[in-house]
Specification:
Layout: H1 8-28, H2 37-57, H3 63-83, H4 90-113, H5 116-122
Helix pairs in contact: 1-2, 2-3, 2-4, 3-4
Amino acid sequence: MTERIPGWWRWAIMAACIYMAILVSNRYLSVNPQMGWVRAGEYALWAAITLGAIARFFPALTPYGWRPVTIFLGALLSGLEIFIGAGPDTKVRVDEWMTALIGIAVVTILARFLPAAITRFWFGQEVVRRGPIARTPR
């Protein structure tokens, strides 16, 4: 297995902090039903940072592995955040969960189509190392 890229823990801590902020804000602040897309934005930001952390932690997975791991982890964590605890009925919760998944999916799709200069920084491939670094597939 390829060694981890230095600085992965900074991205992981930021992803954890963003997730904790999502938990706290959605648990204690009332959300207007017309502002449902805010949840997609919250999880899109979380997915962007998490994708960078996963890419730095598991560089051998390549983007074909990083994106599905981000989607799976996002689906799991957003589902836990939305379905556990008191709240509206199940139909509203499913809508909130799907909105969160849309935000995560948009980021993972954008990761495929952004210019190489951006994805090189995002996935930690700008670090000079002695071994081969996984290239971003197009």
